[in-house]
Amino acid sequence: MEQTLMDKLTILADSAKYDVACTSSGASRTARPGTVGSCYAPGCCHAFTADGRCVSLLKVLMTNCCSFDCGYCVNRRSNDIPRATFAPRELAELTMEFYRRNYIEGLFLSSAVLGTPDYTTERMLAVLRLLRGEYRFGGYIHAKAIPGTSPELLQQLGYLADRLSVNVELPSERSLNLLAPDKGRHSIFRPMKQIAVSGAASREELTLYRHAPKFAPAGQSTQMIVGASPETDYHILKLTEGMYHKYGLKRVFYSAYIPVAEDTRLPALDTKPPLLREHRLYQADWLLRFYQFEADEILDKDNPNFNPYLDPKCNWAVQHYGLFPVDVNRAPFEMLLRVPGIGPKSARRIWHARKQAALGLDELKRMGVVLKRAQYFITCRGFSGAHPGRGSAGRERITRALIDPNVFSGSCEQLSLFSPPAVDNLIGQGVPPRTAVRMVREEAVQCLAKAL
Amino acid sequence: MSCQGAVNPKGARKLHDADVVYLYDGSFEGFLCCVYESFAQHELPFAVWTPQRETATLYPVKDIATDPAVARRVFASFGKKLGAETEYLVSRDFLSGQEDKELLLLRFLHLAFALGPGTVKREGHPVVAPLYAMKKSLDWEVDKFQGFVRFEEHDGMLGAVIHPKNYILPLLRPHFCGRFPEEDFMIYDAVHQAVLLHEGHSTRLLELAAPLELPPPSAREQQFQALWTQFYKTLEIKARHNEKGRMTHCPKRFWADMVELQGEL
């Protein structure tokens, strides 16, 4: 039976949706006369799905017919699902029509491995050439490098796309060998290195010749699955930091593993996706990129996993309580960034405003500092730091102010998305949800206060 | 140096709260003339109104005539005496839909001319902070509408309807004109009765007298709308359903103009 465009779009969007990266940031250009489409450096979200994720690009697979058999993936060879393949012109036309109606910012093109990696990449290249050549499309294109593609084809892909990505998939070689036997460590890191080197060379050329072709101007990103294999958070964070430094990655994405297959090597099908862990990883990732933290400051060998009840920044501040309080009118910028309740934006505002006049609590509040948390860590004009009180009562008060509200929020019927495992265990034993949340919360406060 | 006292440097005539209402035509030039009047009289009016916002009042109403020469003179002084950053902030904030924006801007300008070009950096100051709050809400809405505008094709012309709180068409203009230079398109702001029209490589911003009605979509158009809606629905991962998350990023007031969400309203 002939598949309609609607069927293909449904099947191939459904197969692509587990790819987390959907950003359109990093490239900036306006359309020249005769072309269609521009790029907006901060990126642009065109819709939000019912799970609260941004839709920025037309995220589809070229095909979901795969010759690989990776355990964690819906599209693996042994899975019985409907299969479809886009014809290059069909996909290019759909992209243009969606783009003209301002539905999307561009195209996110990935693919299952149809035949060989090289053949698959050729087909992707055909779409990109149609778009950039015949349709004169200047919008954003994110292309996925298929592991095992030859360097020549990857090079061509880089000159047509704005961003390239190679998925690390699993955080260690052992897990990779176990769950994705067709992909080796080498087939992932070789293209990543090639993209980094070619990107740097292209940037250098651009300083010499203004019209030199740009190789992936929005850089590269990667993603890995969290919770399908036994690695610790420390291991994942070190790997992330290494990739930021070594390959100059723009972003690392994490996706909480959602069981899609019955497999003895994987968590059982009824496992809840570890959303809290994913959330903590993103928080730590932000600390690496915007708060001048290093992975070893956030976690270490003795504490290899995140504290479920405190965000990583508060956790660091609590463990280095001796460095506080700092004077916001004098502290260096790096130290301002480390105060719980002050983010990069408010730190920058403070930095500018304090040159004009000394800041007091009211000013800080109006600048967007979260005083509930910050008050125990700062002094400013007319304020010498909040005194929580002496002894255990005081420690408890600080802990209550710092504890992550996201974990314990939510109404009595619906728990927070990030509810910690301890709450789920109690509910499993028959405790009503509200009581369970309160019990875990109290226990966490006592425990953290003791450690302070 | 105290922040409050600095508004009245020694020897200057004292700025006072006047029991008077300014009435101007709603244009930026008209507002600049209000600024001139306020500085000339050393007074802060009780309120600044446009004809649309005029209501019965016991205070005397002062009609401020729009004089382009005065407006130019006032505007030039912003850049010259207060710096480019202040000029940008004031002209951007004027597009805000907030009721008392003129008064907030006036208060700020009195402070800024007293303290100098650094005033704009004092984001925590009680007079300066509201301007940044307005800018934040404006920027947020511009950012959202750059993504949420949905065009429909009618005989080769792309048309979209939006319902923004602020008057953002002038701020959407560079984005959409830089994106679709070859297309003919129009964006209709149904709240402020204005249209951004891009036709044959030239762009105009028009004020409308009567509301505009777009014709119903053609069969081809409906087909693309169906494809897009289907794509949008397919993307959700059911195991991560998070209605609240969607609502924070895309509040319901946008939904009526977004084709994929009209069915869920």
Q: How many domains of chain B?
A: 3
Please estimate the helix content of chain B.
Answer: 40-55%
The description of the largest β-sheet of chain B is: 5 strands, mixed
Secondary structure: number of strands of chain B? 10
Instruction: Report the principal-axis shape of chain B.
Output: elongated
| Mean pLDDT across every amino acid position of chain B | 91
- For this structure, the CATH topology of the largest domain in chain A is TIM Barrel
Order of strands, widest sheet of chain B: 6-7-8-9-10
Oligomeric organization of the protein chains: heterodimer
Rg value of chain B: 22 Å
- The number of helices of chain B is 8
User: Globular, elongated, flat, extended or rod-shaped: what is the shape of chain A?
Assistant: globular
| Domains of chain A (count) | 2
What is the mean pLDDT of chain A? 90
N-to-C span of chain B: 55 Å
Task: Output the helix-strand order of chain B.
Answer: EEHEEEHHHHEEHEEEHH
The CATH architecture of the largest domain in chain A: Alpha-Beta Barrel
CA-atom Rg of chain A in angstroms: 24 Å
Domain DUF4130 (chain B): 100-260
Organism (chain B): Faecalibacterium prausnitzii
Protein name (chain B): DUF4130 domain-containing protein
GO molecular function (chain A): catalytic activity; iron-sulfur cluster binding; metal ion binding
